[in-house]
Amino acid sequence: EAQVTQNPRYLITVTGKKLTVTCSQNMNHEYMSWYRQDPGLGLRQIYYSMNVEVTDKGDVPEGYKVSRKEKRNFPLILESPSPNQTSLYFCASSARGSGANVLTFGAGSRLTVL
Amino acid sequence: LAKTTQPISMDSYEGQEVNITCSHNNIATNDYITWYQQFPSQGPRFIIQGYKTKVTNEVASLFIPADRKSSTLSLPRVSLSDTAVYYCLVASTTDSWGKFQFGAGTQVVVTP
Lengths: 114, 112
Description:
The complex is a heterodimer of chains A (114) and B (112). Chain A is an all-beta fold and 114 residues long. Chain A is 0% helix and 50% strand. Chain A has no helices and 11 strands. In chain A, strand 5 and strand 6 form a beta hairpin. Chain A is globular, with a radius of gyration of 13 Å. Chain B is mostly beta strands and 112 residues long. Chain B is 0% helix and 48% strand. Chain B has no helices and 9 strands. Chain B has strands at 9-13, 18-23, 31-38, 45-50, 53-56, 61-64, 70-75, 84-92, 106-111. Chain B has a 5-stranded mixed β-sheet, with no helix packed on it. Chain B has a 4-stranded antiparallel β-sheet with strand order 2-7-6-5, with no helix packed on it. The A-B interface holds A 4, 31, 33, 35, 40-45, 48-50, 56, 58-59, 88, 90, 92, 96-108, 110 and B 32, 34, 36, 41-46, 49, 87, 89, 91, 93, 97-105.
């Protein structure tokens, strides 16, 4: 089954404790991206990657890092989480070409930073 | 990047047709219009995509006027399971591809 898999699905952590949210896709998609969703603010893009070793900032990149060492994986790293990063996070992927804006999203990762 | 504007919410009854209009006045020549559906605590799901005129699939129709400054997602004969948030995304598949800006979405509530 074609899918985007995120882990963990739920996480409660404390301020300053580094964490990584993993994202993996099995569709050989070139493009991957991360979003956060907060009440009333819709989806806001954090980072995106056009291909391996190519990443760029979205609208809200502060406090986050990403890497794209393999085509299928695009982890989101919070080096020193703060309470304002409490949110619902989504990873998405798509292929290049006319279907480039047809994103396949993961199920989401709900993060709480205390 | 094209900025989009959608109604915050819409209410409907089962069996009715729901039309959600998205305004995108600064749409660029290479931009496509894509709609997503999101249920609570789930990732958004692709519904339909179009460039101009009308596109129809088994779930919805997308109407795009000639000037492309707006688009309307049409959900025929909605049921309770169509209660969700609907997002309009306008973005190129070539120019500045990858940097996506979703709006706040439209909450559709379907009641019996």
